[in-house]
Structure formats: structure tokens, C-alpha cells
Input
Amino acid sequence: MGRRILFLGPPGAGKGTQAAMLATALGVPHVSTGVMLREAVAAGTELGKRAKSIMAGGDLVPDDLVVAIVEERLARDDAACGYLLDGFPRNVAQARALTAALGDDSVEVALLLEVDEDEIVDRLMKRAAEGRADDNEDTIRRRLEVYRQETEPMVAAYGDKVVAVDGMGAVDDVFAGVVRALV
Ligand code: ADP
Output
């Protein structure tokens, strides 16, 4: 059945970077709702048009839209041998939808990347300078608030599936921690 891994952690924790490295190492698809939504915005699809201003404000795109794109993605052949979820589920309702669609085994382990708040703001401000549309000071604050209100409660919901990984070091050191968490 392959590995079904979920990355949890605040914006700027390095989920995207670590998930991409791990997906390559394991040979499973990296399913990132942030990437899929940004692609939809860039392509100007119906979904993209609805998501654009919501994302720019740092709020969550409605659950039904996000759940639909993830279900479609996970139904593709390459996800039959496992997958790595990054940015989804992002609240308890999305987590319930995932379990309803694919069962309790839809997440085998939830890797929680832990990074200090000061470091997060630093990293996101740096990314802002590189030009991502939702990385500006107000939006960063809003995304951290949304994380605390909506996403963090899922850490408790996933209970003993959660394994904490120190996200503070250099990319390769964090990756070593990710690999250690999975053996
Ligand atoms: P980050 O983790 O740095 O906030 P992402 O790329 O995961 O970045 O997400 C960027 C934006 O895309 C979010 O702020 C939100 O607006 C939207 N988004 C991504 N995933 C989801 C999701 N599962 N549910 C709702 N909105 C989402």
C-alpha cells in the first residue's frame, strides 16, 4: 500500500521543501494543495478565480473546493502506492473528509515540523522579498492566526500518529530528522 504521510506545521516551517525531498526519496507523489491552488490561479481556471483573493488575504479556500481537488489527485494511479500530503488537511473538517473518503489508514504518520515563531516570521519575510503574492507582513500575520485557530487543533486530532521533528536547522539536518522519524 505504500506510505501515506502527512506534513503538519505552520506556514514557513519548511513543509514544502521537506515534502519534496521525501517524496523523491520514497518515490511517491508530493500532493501540495498550495501548489495545486497556485497553479489553478496561474491557469485562470474557475477554481483559480475563486481562490485568488482568498489566498492573497491569507484565509483558507473553502473546504469543498480543496477536498475535491485532493480527492481527484489521490484517485490517480500514482497515488495507489502511497503519497505525501503537504498543506492538506488544514482544518478538522478537511481531516474528517479525508478519513471519510479513504479511511483511517489515509494517514499513517503525521510529521509535525516545529519552528520558533520568530524564525517563521523571518523566513516568510525573506520569501516575501522573493515575490510570492501572499508573503507580505499583514498576510503573514493572518496566516499564522489561521494556523493557530484552524490547523493546530488537528495535531491533537491525529493523536499518536503525530511525530515531532525539529525544523530549526539547515535543510539537510531537518531532512535527517524527518527520515529518523519514519524508521
Ligand atoms: P503556507 O504553508 O506557507 O501557508 P501553502 O502553499 O500551503 O503555504 O498555502 C498557501 C495558501 O493556499 C493558504 O494560505 C490558503 O489560502 C491556501 N490553501 C492551501 N492549502 C489549503 C487547504 N488545504 N485548505 C484551504 N486553503 C488552502
